[in-house]
Each structure stands twice: as structure tokens, then as C-alpha cells.
Specification:
With 58 residues, the chain is mainly beta. 7% of the residues lie in helices and 24% in strands. The protein has one domain: N-terminal domain of TfIIb.
């Protein structure tokens, strides 16, 4: 599967807070609320139900 084109990435925002993402092959991470969303078969699952909180390292 092809990666998500940069033009499309620029349009995608967090479904909860509408902020931008940082991403890698496994997760898309919201830069504002710090939630993360899984990538399944190369496609980011950006639904509130798929949201996972980021655990802070202490």
C-alpha cells in the first residue's frame, strides 16, 4: 500500500481537538491533546473510538 500523500496529511486533524499530527508507521499522535491513533494496514484510523491516551514517562 502506498503511504498517505503529503497533501492529504496536511488536511488531516485530530477528530477530538482538531490539532495537527505527528506520525510514524504504527501511530498518529496529536500534538495538542497527545492522543494517539493506530495505523491499520497502512491507513490511519482517526476515529474517537480508536483513540488511545499517551502515557507520560515518569
Amino acid at each position: 500500500m502506498k503511504p498517505v500523500p503529503p497533501e492529504v496529511i496536511a488536511l488531516l486533524v485530530c477528530p477530538v481537538c482538531r490539532a495537527e499530527f505527528a506520525h510514524d508507521e504504527r501511530w498518529w499522535r496529536c500534538l495538542a491533546c497527545r492522543a494517539k491513533y493506530p495505523v491499520v494496514d497502512g491507513v490511519p484510523v482517526l476515529t474517537p473510538e480508536a483513540r488511545r491516551p499517551i502515557v507520560e514517562d515518569r
